[in-house]
Amino acid sequence: MQGKTVVITGATSGIGQVASARLAAMGARLVIVARDKARGEAALASLGTISPGTNHSIHYADLSRLADVKRVAAEIAAAEPRIDVLINNAGALFGSRQVTTDGMELTFATNHMSYFVLAHGLRDRLRASAPARVVNVASDAHKGKKLDFSDLQSANNYSGFYVYGRSKLCNILFTRELARRWAGSGVTANSLHPGFVSTRFGDQSGGMLSFLVRAAKTFAISPEKGAETIVYLASSGEVSNANGLYYYKCCPATPTKEAQDNDSARRLWQESEKLAGITY
Ligand SMILES: NC(=O)c1ccc[n+]([C@@H]2O[C@H](COP(=O)([O-])OP(=O)(O)OC[C@H]3O[C@@H](n4cnc5c(N)ncnc54)[C@H](OP(=O)(O)O)[C@@H]3O)[C@@H](O)[C@H]2O)c1
To answer: Which of 10, 17, 113, 158 could join 89 in a cystine, given CB atoms 3.0 to 4.6 angstroms apart?
Structure first.
């Protein structure tokens, strides 16, 4: 990873923080996107101790807000002549339905729309740096979930776990469609399930949901283990030609048939373009 620039979201905690530390130790220069100043500065300082001679950098954005994602993408594109890897990792689970300033349901906005809009904003830099990679952190929580195009914002019957799983289904479908559309550009896109990992994930979800996630974490793997497939997809020569695939434990895995539905992937793309007010 010597000489490579990696943009990563959600590097202030959990698997994103471990993955960024590993990639820095491998020689990469990290550009992290964070929402909280204190947590961001701590993460940046920690990267500095891993590779003191490398000029890691940080940009701030609340990734649940479209305007913030667009702004931060433009800032990064202006500051970085090349981007070798984009890791879309920031994500969250919410116990009750909340609506963003853009009128979108918060899980969908944070977990799916931020991936979609950030990749769009960095597209030209990624393409100019080819071979380059997009790595999207998804989850096996997509299993058993279906997209409802008449209710993408989950206005009906909100259930935190279900809506979270559906946002992770969006991650896999987005990756599939991105890989198809960018085929031949030299930029690949793959998604992954990190395993069930003991991080801060779920701590802020609220009420019963936080309690359940905390109890289940007794059986979870460490963030070090959970970060392995991110690091693998971002850095390994074994996957330089892999495109549009879903990985678990550093191996290709088969997502559900809903996650392999090309029509859904295309439709989600079109709906996301409309919601974001962009054309890829
Ligand atoms: N943990 C698991 O078992 C598991 C399983 C499958 C998939 N995943 C996926 O793995 C990814 C990372 O999760 P994790 O387990 O490492 O959780 P985590 O410890 O809670 O870390 C989440 C990261 O996302 C950032 N983030 C959340 N909302 C944001 C927003 N609106 N704007 C900017 N940054 C935001 C957080 O920033 P702050 O530090 O400011 O909070 C933090 O850096 C997520 O996409 C999650 O869906 C996790």
So the answer is: 10
